[in-house]
Amino acid sequence: MKTATLASIALAMSVSVANAQTIGVSMSDLDKFRTALLNGVVAHGETVSGLKLVTENAKGDNELQKKQVQKLIADKVDAIILAVSDGDLGPQMTKMAADAGIPLVYINNVPSNLLDLPENQVVVASNEKESGTLETKQVCALLKGKGRVVVLMGEPFHAAARARTQDISDVIATPDCKGLEIVERQAAYWSRDYADQQLQEWLAAGVKFDAVIANNDEMALGAIRAMKKAGMPMKDVVVAGVDATDDALASMVAGDLDVTILQSAVGQGAAAVEAAVKLVNKEKVPRENNVPFELVTPENISKYLPKSQ
Fold this sequence. Notes:
The protein is an alpha/beta fold. Helix content is 39%, strand content 23%. It folds into two domains: 21-126 and 265-290, Rossmann fold (3-Layer(aba) Sandwich), CATH 3.40.50.2300; 128-263, Response regulator (Rossmann fold), CATH 3.40.50. Strands 1-12-6-5-4-2-3 form a seven-stranded parallel beta sheet, sandwiched between helices. The radius of gyration is 20 Å and the shape is elongated. Residues 5-18 have low confidence and may be disordered. Its main location: other. This is Ribose transport system substrate-binding protein/inositol transport system substrate-binding protein. GO terms for molecular function: carbohydrate binding.
């Protein structure tokens, strides 16, 4: 299977569309990261002469997202960029777009039918094997390979949540980190508020832990909020997330968050637009297009502050 990096699919920033074209963009929801992702799509779309973007927000409703995609197809957009919350929606979305002959770019979440995508459908995302692995290895290093860990997971049906959670287990199974023990693991649905509530429940139950490993920054920040309300000294707990959002970077500067992983919303947004334009122009695009993750810590945060999402 061919995989491309962002650099390999990027066109010149001055690229223009020969004839006016319209790309429909359907977002599963607009939380902190997905808003940044949409902003990345829109910002790059504005650099493409003659390109119009039509955006939709499904607000977490899978049925609504299907209807929105059907409407985009009925409106005869030239291509669709689609962020699904549930990768299992892939087969249905793929069939709708394929039947209409409209190119489809999945962004951020990998559809369950990845291996069966037709030639005019591709994925722009980041290799989730990197995210949870980088995050957990850093936690392991900070704990010197020994400690009790609680894990906050995203939506159970989201491919990234499953992959990042498996990454945590894989790292803990390695010789250098086998002294780490997962004492609790629960879904907090990418949400700061759900994570806050979950941490409060664990603390009330007397759960003892040395680190919180969250599938995203919003959950890490919710955990920090709960621990602060409980009067826990943040210097005694390692907290890790993924996305390098602006709030997460501010929390790291404040000394609360210890680890985050940059998932470039700007990079994914730009790559998705470029892939859609290429597909509309009948150019070949690799099925998988990966935008690399990067480890962000207090030691190197200065180089990432301008990149905040």
